[in-house]
Amino acid sequence: MAPTDLRLDYAYCTADALGGVHGVARQRAVELSQSFIRVHAELERGRQEGRLGFWELPQTPAAELTAIKSQAERLRGLADNLVVLGIGGSALGATAVDMALNGIWRHSLPRRQDGMRLYVADNSDPRMFTSLLEGLDLKRTAFNVISKSGSTAETAAQFMVALDRLEQALGPEEARRRLVLTTDPVAGSLRPLATLQGFPSLPVPPNVGGRYSVLSAVGLLPLACAGHDIDALLAGAGRMAARCLAPEMTANPAYLFAALAVDFWRRGRNILVMMPYVSDLFGLAQWFAQLWAESLGKALNLKGETVNLGQTPVAAVGATDQHSQLQLYMEGPHDKLICFITLDNYGCDLEIPSLYPELDAMAYLGGRSLAELIQAEAKATAAALADQGRPSLSLRLPLLDEDALGQVIFLLEAATVAAGALLGIDPLDQPGVELSKKLTYGLMGRPGFDSFRQRLEELDLGQRFVL
Amino acid sequence: MAPTDLRLDYAYCTADALGGVHGVARQRAVELSQSFIRVHAELERGRQEGRLGFWELPQTPAAELTAIKSQAERLRGLADNLVVLGIGGSALGATAVDMALNGIWRHSLPRRQDGMRLYVADNSDPRMFTSLLEGLDLKRTAFNVISKSGSTAETAAQFMVALDRLEQALGPEEARRRLVLTTDPVAGSLRPLATLQGFPSLPVPPNVGGRYSVLSAVGLLPLACAGHDIDALLAGAGRMAARCLAPEMTANPAYLFAALAVDFWRRGRNILVMMPYVSDLFGLAQWFAQLWAESLGKALNLKGETVNLGQTPVAAVGATDQHSQLQLYMEGPHDKLICFITLDNYGCDLEIPSLYPELDAMAYLGGRSLAELIQAEAKATAAALADQGRPSLSLRLPLLDEDALGQVIFLLEAATVAAGALLGIDPLDQPGVELSKKLTYGLMGRPGFDSFRQRLEELDLGQRFVL
Fold first, then answer.
1. Is the ipTM of this complex over 0.90?
2. pTM for this prediction
3. Residue B276 belongs to what domain range?
């Protein structure tokens, strides 16, 4: 194991730490590890049949990476801002990595890496989009429209509004140069625009779904525009992919993560808190929340039986949420598993001066540092939870860079499909979101969706229950 | 009811919409409403005995408001940036209101209201705090240190680092003018600094806890600095406070909210999703998450019996999270109640041009607007969830301004203490966070906490379970 490798610390999941009622006892661990014989065979088949497209992304051919990088270089020459028009899996990955590396204040304060400022406009909210279109200098702004199918209503609407504005500001020809489409290489309604109308474009591999797409052009183009090292991101992911090929549960970090999450879920812990002790990793926790929720929240299993399962992810931040959520985590129902993410090295530090040695509440801090404090808090919180029989695991990153992010991203993707296999559901589809989309089409007057408008009127109870 | 009043729509909680298994049937509603005879009497006693200090904040005396406003005016004359050093209840309220009114891009793009830029540094993370201290022009920056007790480690550490930097940049005298302390008027370790060292200061009412303090100086000073109308905020809160005095459950929006949340919680829905269909209200959802989690997540009831109860709040955003969490909400376990927040009027809109009438996925959007789209999505999602037996309620705001925010803030605070009374627990304390704090003191070498350092070593299993 290299010093730059992510470590998974699961001590506070075990019966050794939590006792037999709450912890995973050795016998239970043996039973769990046996179920991975089936899981491993299924994932192996999935990889061979090309269903797990994300698994191959760390080995993206050099020619494809060159296309992404040269597109990024072209945009960086044209503009200072890149607005991503995409939602869900087309938005969360780029936000996660850019926030991690350039910080939560990246839009207003100097960033750590030189590149375009990334604005991810992942909502159909007119307040948010108006302030963006009116606040940015459109002459120094490019757009990346990301939708695999091209039919996402929010993105399609924003695309038309943005194109219209760009044409007014720059003329039709220059507007087209500023608007890159990332979409399916063949299917979908954005592809004809790319081919017939001459928009620059990049492909999303057909066998990579939105929430598994951050290491494809979906995430890589915006991240390259923002100045991040996409080769290092893929290299970290590739090293983790190799670790996640181990057949043994106890040697495979993805299997271990999946085993613990599923076992605690089966024993009543229907909530999984993802809680990095790094403000800049809140975006990563939100990215994970989509991955876990949409992949594992399913009505039917693979046999077609109704199961209605799925563990609810919650994004939190340490130490901040010790002052918001910890009271509930310590004393509430035994309904949670917590996954911490910690840094061995924060990459910078601030010494705390001894200004008030006469005040008890301040004296002990003098001469220590903020990194020491947050690391002590992470350790203390995990221990306090364990003391109350509350399980947690920790993903320990050596430091926060592209390589480490690639590792943690791949680990969580692999853990998600392993958990899906363990639960016997399909972690790659999302049938449950269709009804809401169709009702929206009905309300917006899309031809062919009249019956859904009627269905909505039937469901509407008017003002009878309004206070 | 005035046209500017918040409406609570609970149709999709009823058996009329969801059927008898999932919905609240009429008989059950009658039983619930009877339990509010006791709840109302308890809250009435709490108000009379001065335990519910937040209830009086809308009637803050004019002299106190003048002190806050003149402090804000002074700071606005000195600086462009206000950094809040506070965490949890000292941070979340100001962030919620400033984000709501100035938008998620408020740090980099033009804001809707003229005032200081607010940076809320609510973590002991050296990465976040270094980028802030090095990125801001300290000569144009003021600080508001907020801690009722003064003993919060994160805030105390940041305070000493910031004061040291300010003194280096501006000299000791000018540094003191830039650093306002908001703390207990008598007790706590920041108070002697204010009195002896001459820092300007404002009081937190002793009977107002952190998570209920946004309408005190804790929230009002930063919000006045940022240019928001704090009188309108309090006026909206005051109108809602009057509505929340009604003894009848069905006439009192706080009681109705509490009744529904508690009833669904008792029937297995241990997750409450707060999901505004407004990007700028994500901060409000996070503020609510602290309020609900820390108030209701309790090990013991008022009789001292072990109950380990509490519903876990989740902050989400529509339409964004339709592409992240909706799959789980539609198909996962019946373990959630969802509270939407919607706007009747977004205050701005963007028309969608008809650029591609030949493309099915785009044609229907042409000529409609982004506000129409997001409103259709909110309606469609609530209906789709109801179709699957999934309960939701909606807080409908007429528009997004200080008055509406005051209403929704007060409603949720009143609902929280009503839920606490209904559950028979104390919604005002937070005993569960002490152990983690003491273990941190032990690790940081604070005198008197050696035994906690030893306890932590006992809990540590070292490298035995690390992969």
1. yes
2. 0.98
3. 7-47+233-423
